[in-house]
Amino acid sequence: MMMIEAVEARFGQASIESAKLEFLSDNGGAYRAHETHALARAMGLEPIHTPVCSPQSNGMAESFVNTFKRDYVNAMDRSNAEVVLAQLPDAFTHFNEVHPHSSLKWKSPRMFRRELARRAQENDAN
Asked: Does pTM surpass 0.70?
């Protein structure tokens, strides 16, 4: 259920139908399970896994975790799990909508994707 909510919240139903999306995960048993792969494929996602001993994939994951902890978790009320979980949706929304990323030319992920889509439409029109 969490995978379904995450995909719909991130991409919306229309985007799922119009793009090839991949579900990237590590090699943990829950992510390699046949049921997980079946659910991902039923949602139009292609399950893929990080290569074993992949420093690049590990580096990207560690970078995200460190950034999220530094910029969000450290400022959160961490008095109990319920309080933390209640704050996460707003933090993820801010991270994806507002937070500038150096690797995205100081744009948020959604700003960057919108710009890419706009450029693609302009190129298609020309």
From this structure: no
